[in-house]
From TrEMBL:
Highest taxon of the lineage: Bacteria
Coiled coil: none
Alphabetized PANTHER family for the sequence: NUDIX HYDROLASE 23, PHOSPHATASE NUDJ
Source lineage: Bacteria, Pseudomonadati, Pseudomonadota, Betaproteobacteria, Burkholderiales
Annotated Pfam families: NUDIX (PF00293)
InterPro entries: NUDIX_hydrolase-like_dom_sf (IPR015797), NUDIX_hydrolase_dom (IPR000086)
Domain Nudix hydrolase residues, every copy: 6-139
Protein name: NUDIX domain-containing protein
Gene3D superfamilies, per database record: Nucleoside Triphosphate Pyrophosphohydrolase
Length: 165
């Protein structure tokens, strides 16, 4: 049997934030140009998914995010045209609330702006979505999906791993 490299999907978190029928999105620079995404990013070593989504939302929107519900686990695979890179994402999505923009706080590098769009407006510009998960998460939220935050468990070993063996 031929040895192959172990499959390692990218684990990301996303914040789905709705207010008055509009969803908070970010317009960000990608290798394919300016694209729309939910405030989202990669899970970093030592942080829980909830810590990660709070951090990413703050970095990308300059707003404090309070997760209220777990939306679900989403997977998508696609080829990035600019690099011909085959990538699989595992996205843990959360819904919640944000406060006002924090004065003087800049947006993360690569984020051009934030904007509020309705579900219909977002669906109408699907060609500009960073991934197919952007709209799916918004549609699930709009359909009423709400799971308890306790559905995502993070063991204390994330911060202080023990030595096994």
């Amino acid at each position: 049997m031929v040895a192959t490299e172990r499959f390692r999907p990218s684990v990301t978190v996303a914040a789905v934030i709705e207010h008055g029928g509009r969803y908070l999105l970010v317009e960000e620079e990608t290798p394919e140009g300016l694209m729309l995404n939910n405030p989202a990013g990669h899970l970093e070593l030592g942080e829980s998914p909830i810590e990660a989504v709070v951090r990413e939302a703050l970095e990308e929107t300059a707003r404090a995010f309070t997760p209220r519900h777990f939306l679900g686990v989403y997977l998508a695979r696609f080829v990035r045209p600019a690099r011909l890179e085959d990538v699989t994402y595992v996205r843990l999505a959360f819904s919640g609330d944000v406060g006002e923009e924090i004065a003087g706080r800049t947006l993360d590098e690569g984020i051009h702006r934030t904007l509020w769009l309705t579900e219909a407006e977002l669906a109408a510009c699907a060609a500009r979505h960073r991934s197919p998960l952007v709209l799916q998460c918004v549609q699930d939220h709009a359909a009423g999906r709400r799971l308890p935050l306790e559905a995502v468990f993070s063991h204390a070993s994330l911060a202080a791993p023990s030595v096994k063996g």
